[in-house]
Design goal:
Layout: H1 2-60, E1 89-91, E2 111-116, H2 124-137, E3 146-148, E4 154-156, E5 174-179, H3 190-207, E6 214-216, H4 217-221, H5 227-231, H6 233-243
Parallel strand pairs: 1-4, 2-5, 2-6, 3-5
Antiparallel strand pairs: 3-4
Helix pairs in contact: 3-6
This protein binds zinc ion.
Amino acid sequence: MDDYKEELRRQSEREEIRYRRELAIRRRKARTRRTIFLAALVFILIAAAAAIIIVSARRTSPGEPDAPDSPEEPEAGNNPDTIAVPDWVTVDLLPVNEYSRPGTALEQVNGVVVHYVGNPNTTAKQNRNYFANLAQTHETSASSHFLIGLDGEVIQCVPLNEWSYCSNSRNADTIAIECCHPDESGEFTKETYDSLIKLLKWLCDTYSLDREDIIRHYDVTGKICPKWYVDHPEDWEALLDDVGAPSNPDKADGADTVEDEDKDEGDRSGGFLSGLLDGLK
Ligand SMILES: [Zn+2]
């Protein structure tokens, strides 16, 4: 009987040991699972924090091309398409065509070139229509941004931010003005002259131009245009005095050298009207 009791006691001890061992194993497993769970949680939190930092850094980065609040590209040159001409200018634009209004962008205005139409006693409107008709006649390539008539009327033919075909090598960075005149001398009427001064003042203010930036077609190519002011250089200086733009001596030399080889070039230059408008008289 004692043996039997002893056997039962040992069995009970063995079961208790087995139970404790299993309990210990279960606790260890539970601890491992908890550790893995915590590690995973920490990893997820770190990953989420990193993602938030990267996304917000991209949003605030100014150089990022795709960023929604990246600043606008700065406007090239000094000639945005927002400049409006004064109300004393009649806007009567030429149709876009390769002979008088090529539609080429004029991004930077560095000067104004003054011309005479070369065909006495024609009106600003007649000269404007001559430019427009070049689209059909293909006679030559010619135009100017502005035409000033014998009565001082000012017609705009080409938008300020496009090339006109008037001033040869300076088409790319100047505004061109053609002036009508009553006779072969090329002298302007008082009305034409006054409108020219007013227009030059406005252009100098608008584009921050200096006295030296106002030039004759003659100063670009050596062409006798505008004839009166090539024949009478002292009157040209008086005209510049009347405009009153500030002088910048740095621009006086070398900037606008005369290119004699271009003298007789009719295409895409001024003075093209000589003889061509005779039928209008
Ligand atoms: Zn000219």
